[in-house]
Automatic annotation (TrEMBL):
The gene is mltG. It catalyses: a peptidoglycan chain = a peptidoglycan chain with N-acetyl-1,6-anhydromuramyl-[peptide] at the reducing end + a peptidoglycan chain with N-acetylglucosamine at the non-reducing end. InterPro entries: MLTG-like. The chain crosses the membrane at residues 30-53. It is found in: Cell membrane. It comes from the Bacteria. This is Endolytic murein transglycosylase. The record marks 262 as: Important for catalytic activity. Its EC number is 4.2.2.29.
Amino acid sequence: MSKEHKNDKKDQIRQKMIERQSEAKLVRKIVLIIAIILVITVGAAVGGGYFYIKSAIKPVNPDDKKEKQVEIPIGSSSTSIGKILEDNGIIKDARVFKYYVKLKNETGFMAGEYKLNPSMTIPDIIKSLKTGKLEEQLVFKVTIPEGKQLEQIAGIIAEKINKKPEDVFKTLNDQAFIESLMGKYPDLLTEEILNENIKYPLEGYLFPATYPFYKENPTIEEIVKPMLDKTAAVVNEYQVAMEERELTVHELLTMSSLIEEEATAKVDRDKIASVFYNRMATGMPLQTDPTVLYAQGEHKEKVLYKDLEIDSPYNTYKYPGLTPGPIANAGVMSIEAALVPDESDYLYFLATSSGEVLFSKTLDEHNQKKATHIK
């Protein structure tokens, strides 16, 4: 190779190195510029977020003392309370309120009607909602225990408002009354409650809790509304779990009611739920005694073999799957058991006279326990 050719080769290599160095410098400059932009952007976002949150915590209008009447329903979460306050112009941002409450670990908000104004700070609003301005004006409370049926609930309501239980029960099952409530609670009270096999459309939908009332002689609708609000709030907390199990609200409350009626103080509701789901998966009828009593409309200590013959879609000895609707109201523990049952192979359970519940995988095992514990 000639000397001249070698020099040309070196010049080409040198030129390529210069180009690469130039390219590397350009890349480094671009990276540096992008990094600077990112730092500025993030800084601006953080700074902007800081000033936004700082502003959102302050009163909406320090000079506006005009009071607004704001109603906080029974069972409202911090999220829903924040939305109500924002919609009424009492706070600037519901999300900021939610996280403020969470970070401060604020709890114990009381339902009721409050007089609030846009000049109030978030701490003042929280203090007002926790102390309950209307506590002194409480007229009466209605306590609905877990596992109660609609007819029993009607009796509890009737006693508080000086009406006949049968009149309250009649109103609770009135077609126009039910359709009116369905219009107000479309996501909770669906067409499923109007199934022709349903005994009482509102059965299982009046959540067990204690409800305060602040006026004399409220209407039955005014008494029922907080109960439906509470059910809607509770169900809303489990939307994701319901979707995972592919359950409608009606199916969830129905399964929960069966668990509630079979549960005792000593029982593991998760295991009862697993038995019901295992039976449904294999096509076995649920065979749960409370459904037979509900079909009969009776309250008895013991179900006899002749009782099992009643021809009703609520009789789970005759018809497989869930009952047409709930047979009672269920508490949170039963609802959670219906959504997250225990993983087991159990197909049978037996309640003893002491309240203990024994679980079995086979019929032979079940019958042995039955012979030992049921006299």
